[in-house]
Amino acid sequence: MSNNRSIFDIVGPIMVGPSSSHTAGAVRLGELARAIFGAQPASARIVLHGSFAATGDGHGTKLALVAGLLGMKPDDERISHAFDVARDSDMTVIFEDIELDEAHPNTAIFHLEPRKEDLQDAQLGVAPLTITGSSVGGGNVVVTQIENFAINATGDLPLLVIEHTDQPGVIHAVTGILNEAGINIAAMDVSREMRGANALMLIECDAKPDATTLKRIRKQTQVHSVRFVPAV
What we know:
Layout: H1 7-11, H2 20-37, E1 43-49, H3 50-55, H4 61-69, H5 82-88, E2 92-98, E3 107-113, H6 116-119, E4 129-137, E5 140-146, E6 149-153, E7 159-165, H7 170-180, E8 185-192, E9 198-205, H8 211-218, E10 223-229
Parallel strand pairs: 1-2
Antiparallel strand pairs: 1-3, 3-4, 4-5, 5-6, 7-9, 7-10, 8-9
């Protein structure tokens, strides 16, 4: 990995708000949680740890997280009105605080519930989901957990999140389908509950797989769900 720093790292993101970590990063974290979830949630219970909990109101962190869940970017002028936009969009939000061991101080846990119409749409693959992530500085973020699976997702590249049974041949089948579609794999990680149990495959791609490719992956016997997450 290159150690070169971009102008974004030095100057910081284009944003609305006082802080790259507590505002711009929080918007992007909410946006990445929405992208992983697959739709705008009907409700969100957001649990804040550390500095996020201590300064969530003063630095606009709560507004920023909600703005991200609504699909806003860090430079969106509507961020300061995110609670009003959420209400008008029929998205309910509540906040809680928590103390976590060995967690980044700018950490949020999103407990997201789908809208009825999305829950009934099998193509979306939307279901209740818990996502944990942190704003790590300069507008950069990382999602560290989906449900009980430890992951590392930054939102920098398109991502496939594939839940499957931990069985021989599943990874080979999925990567083979991507190879046939001409999709280059930039990075890959697999986390499992235990041998032979549920597993989560994360594949960062250089391009979005088309609908036919995603359908082929979904049809694999041991694959339970496939989420495509665009870069944010």
